[in-house]
Design a protein that fits this description.
CATH class of one domain: Mainly Alpha
CATH architecture of one domain: Alpha Horseshoe
Strand content: under 5%
Mean pLDDT: 79
Number of helices: 13
CATH topology of one domain: Serine Threonine Protein Phosphatase 5, Tetratricopeptide repeat
Structural class: mainly alpha
Number of strands: 0
Distance between the termini: 122 Å
Radius of gyration: 29 Å
Oligomer: single chain
Helix content: over 70%
Order of helices and strands: HHHHHHHHHHHHH
Shape: elongated
Low-confidence stretches: 239-249, 253-273
Largest sheet: none
Length: 273
């Protein structure tokens, strides 16, 4: 029985979701060998090769997908990722910029429901990367999702948390701030904004955010814990400062003329007789 390419790709997608990348490759290679592969098949094959650690075949398949569909945002993003893995950073930067440009054009040109669907697909792919430890790739996918759906604050919230995990507190702060400005009642995002401020070294901003959270949700133990952490840090800093001041106060006086410029002690001015 002649199995259609579409059916084989569906089976490959199932194998991919189960993280059976070699199984997906086997099915997709059959599609490619038939000469009836379309852009999605080449893209999925390239992605499967990439996750299986085969960068060169992955790049070839992603290039083929882009020949068939030059506006394929996901293929552009994954091509950039593979180029970066191969050490071809300059080419990767060009590909990322192209993906951002195409993604922006797509958001303007697609109906809202189509843009939303694509954004959710990027997020799903980001989750798949996250499950296998690909934090940087997951972040890239969530950036692509927000390019299509900038008002999807649930996706922006998750991106902010991933950025914190990646040690990018300033970037996370920017995203949490966007959420809080758009949705002041989103107190979870506000709490995370405080944490991003704190991790970025801005304790005063963190304290202001968390105190406002406490006023609006006094029963939240997380906010209390954050404020208690700040208080402990402030007490530790005060104790260090007091100890330093005490050590200076307890130090023996400096003998006149030792270590001072200009001769005698008392400022160097002679008392008139």
């Amino acid at each position: 029985m002649d199995v259609s390419p579409e059916h084989l790709v569906e089976q490959a997608q199932e194998r991919f979701q189960l993280q059976d990348y070699y199984g997906a490759i086997h099915l997709l290679e059959e599609v490619v060998a038939s000469g009836r592969a379309f852009a999605d098949a080449h893209h999925l094959l390239g992605l499967s090769y990439s996750l299986a650690g085969q960068s060169e075949p992955a790049l070839a398949q992603l290039d083929r997908a882009l020949v068939l569909n030059p506006q394929y945002v996901e293929a552009l993003v994954h091509r950039a990722i593979v180029l970066n893995e191969l050490g071809r950073e300059a080419e990767a930067d060009v590909a990322f910029r192209r993906a951002a440009q195409v993604g922006g054009e797509a958001r303007q040109g697609f109906p809202a429901h189509v843009a939303a669907k694509l954004a959710n697909q990027h997020a799903a792919l980001g989750n798949a990367y996250l499950e296998v430890g690909g934090l940087a790739h997951a972040i890239d996918q969530y950036h692509a999702a927000l390019a299509l759906g900038p008002a999807f604050h649930d996706l922006r919230y998750k991106l902010g948390r991933m950025l914190l995990e990646a040690g990018r507190a300033l970037d996370a702060r920017e995203h949490f701030d966007i959420i809080v400005r758009a949705r002041p009642t989103y107190l979870d995002a506000a709490a995370m904004l405080g944490l991003a401020c704190y991790l970025a070294g801005d304790g005063l901003a963190a304290k202001a955010v968390w105190e406002e959270c406490r006023e609006r949700r006094p029963e939240d133990p997380r906010v209390e814990a954050y404020l208690a952490m700040l208080a402990r840090n402030d007490q530790s800093a005060s104790a260090v400062g007091s100890a330093a001041a005490s050590s200076v106060a307890d130090a023996p006086p400096t003998p006149p003329g030792s270590g001072r410029r200009g001769g005698g002690g008392g400022g160097g001015r002679k008392k008139k007789s």
